């Protein structure tokens, strides 16, 4: 008979989440770089998500905007780029090579082929013409440092040329060369999004050349990314891993074998995977607390959090029953599966929140019987903490969900 596998309960998974995702008060981080490193990647499709996700995890939330801006645009310690599932993420700079090699190369090849196909169908110039425009645009960006597409078109007017996409079909549209080309260059890891044109909630960005990084073998990069993510989010099922990475089942299994991942059993009868040696009670060394010491021996201290839409914790797993009951999901997700702002208590999603036009942060419990007065007091304190550091800024999630719309109105 084989060796009996370790069983990790839902309660233990929630304790791991509290510390490894820097959500328990004792585990809060000192810098945005520490937050991003702990979570592997911050969802960047909605720019406000990055700041709100960091602020929920910083020991000094009042420093959120200044420190996150510093990390992104001054030190370039964090980089906004396309990554898993063709989604925009904010990553620790050392991880850009890993993400590019593990997920970006395959997506980039498809994106460039799609652009050339669409241009050919529209009778637009060929690949040689596009290569000239690309070389000229990158040279202009190098001279300028950072620039918008419109500014680059001043130096390379061919970026303004347009072609009809999907002519004759219901979704026919007109694309500008700059729009499609810069997107392809982003996926290829040649350009990244720089400073926004407005405040920290703005969705309009300048472009910048991507930081240089060494080429990596795809298999090695996939193994490294999976190892990092399993450390932050394990145990996870194969379905979770395939969903988060966007890889094929064979790629996930190959990466699991490469890092010698261990299997555990989960509540409900499922099989989970953890990093080798990470099967101990509570996880082996879940990570440093804000003072730099280990938190492995701590019990599960009560904690509350208000996390933004698309937060990496709420979106981290495909199989979510262990932290989110089926009942509240219709109110918290949009039709495309994007999660809205969520209220957490001790590792479970118990409600949602929103910001009203006057700046008030309001919240509602969707499972009121599951929490008591201690939880409500802690959630109210987190709402006030959020209101204080957000200040006069008004935040509307890019993807609106039923409860967020109701509360904000």
Structure description:
- It comes from Streptomyces actuosus.
- It holds the Pfam family AlkZ-like.
- This is AlkZ family DNA glycosylase.
- The chain has 409 residues and is of the alpha+beta class.
- The chain folds into two domains: 1-40 and 221-409, no CATH class; 94-209, no CATH class.
- It has helices at residues 10-20, 32-39, 47-55, 64-74, 96-121, 127-144, 149-155, 177-187, 218-233, 238-245, 249-258, 329-332, 373-390, 402-408, and strands at residues 7-8, 42-43, 78-82, 88-92, 146-147, 162-165, 173-176, 191-196, 205-209, 262-266, 271-274, 304-307, 342-345, 348-355, 361-365.
- Strands 12-13-14-15 form a four-stranded antiparallel beta sheet.
- Helix 5 packs across helix 9.
- The longest helix is centred in the N-terminal third of the chain and has 26 residues, at 96-121.
- It is globular and about 65 Å long.
- It starts with 6 loop residues before the first strand and ends with a helix.
Q: Spatial order of the strands in the main sheet?
A: 12-13-14-15
Provide mean pLDDT, rounded: 91
Order of helices and strands: EHHEHHEEHHEHEEHEEHHHEEEHEEEHH
Low-confidence spans: pLDDT under 50, at least 5 residues? 283-298
Global outline: globular
Q: What gap, in angstroms, lies between the N and C termini?
A: 60 Å
Number of domains: 2
Number of helices: 14
Specify the structural class: alpha+beta
Helix percent reads 40-55%
Largest β sheet strand count, sense and barrel closure: 4 strands, antiparallel
Question: Can you lay out the helices and strands and say which pair or pack?
Answer:
Blueprint: E1 7-8, H1 10-20, H2 32-39, E2 42-43, H3 47-55, H4 64-74, E3 78-82, E4 88-92, H5 96-121, H6 127-144, E5 146-147, H7 149-155, E6 162-165, E7 173-176, H8 177-187, E8 191-196, E9 205-209, H9 218-233, H10 238-245, H11 249-258, E10 262-266, E11 271-274, E12 304-307, H12 329-332, E13 342-345, E14 348-355, E15 361-365, H13 373-390, H14 402-408
Parallel strand pairs: 1-10
Antiparallel strand pairs: 2-4, 3-4, 5-9, 6-7, 8-9, 10-11, 12-13, 13-14, 14-15
Helix pairs in contact: 5-8, 5-9, 9-11
């Amino acid at each position: 008979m084989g060796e009996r596998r370790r069983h990790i309960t839902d309660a233990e998974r929630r304790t791991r989440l509290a510390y490894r995702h820097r959500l328990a008060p004792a585990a809060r981080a000192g810098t945005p770089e520490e937050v991003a490193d702990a979570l592997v990647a911050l969802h960047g499709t909605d720019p406000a998500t990055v700041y709100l996700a960091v602020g929920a995890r910083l020991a000094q939330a009042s420093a959120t905007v200044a420190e996150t801006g510093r990390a992104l645009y001054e030190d370039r310690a964090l980089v906004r780029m396309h990554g898993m599932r063709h989604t925009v993420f904010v990553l620790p700079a050392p991880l850009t090579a890993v993400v590019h090699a593990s997920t970006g190369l395959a997506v980039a090849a498809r994106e460039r082929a799609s652009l050339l196909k669409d241009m050919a169908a529209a009778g637009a110039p060929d690949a040689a013409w596009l290569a000239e425009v690309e070389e000229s645009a990158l040279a202009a960006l190098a001279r300028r440092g950072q620039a918008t597409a419109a500014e680059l078109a001043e130096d390379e007017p061919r970026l303004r040329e347009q072609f009809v996409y999907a002519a004759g079909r219901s979704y026919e549209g007109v694309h500008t060369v700059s729009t499609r080309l810069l997107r392809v260059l982003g996926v290829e890891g040649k350009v990244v999004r720089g400073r926004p044109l407005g405040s920290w909630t703005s969705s309009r960005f300048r472009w910048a050349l991507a930081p240089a990084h060494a080429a990596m073998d795809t298999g090695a990069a996939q193994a490294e990314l999976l190892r990092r993510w399993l450390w932050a989010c394990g145990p996870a099922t194969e379905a979770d891993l395939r969903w988060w990475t966007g890889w094929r089942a064979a790629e996930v299994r190959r990466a699991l074998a490469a890092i010698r991942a261990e299997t555990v059993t989960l509540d409900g009868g499922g099989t989970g995977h953890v990093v080798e040696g990470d099967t101990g009670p509570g996880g082996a060394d879940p990570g440093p607390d804000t003072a730099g010491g280990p938190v492995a021996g701590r019990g599960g201290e009560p904690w509350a959090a208000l996390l933004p839409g698309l937060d990496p914790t709420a979106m981290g797993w495909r199989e979510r029953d262990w932290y989110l009951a089926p009942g509240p999901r219709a109110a918290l997700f949009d039709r495309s599966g994007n999660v809205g702002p969520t209220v957490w208590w001790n590792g479970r999603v118990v409600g949602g929140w929103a910001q009203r036009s006057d700046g008030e942060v309001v919240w509602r419990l969707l499972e009121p019987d599951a929490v008591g007065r201690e939880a409500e007091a802690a959630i109210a304190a987190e709402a006030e903490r959020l209101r204080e550091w957000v200040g006069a800024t008004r935040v509307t999630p890019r993807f609106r969900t039923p409860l967020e719309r109701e509360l904000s109105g």
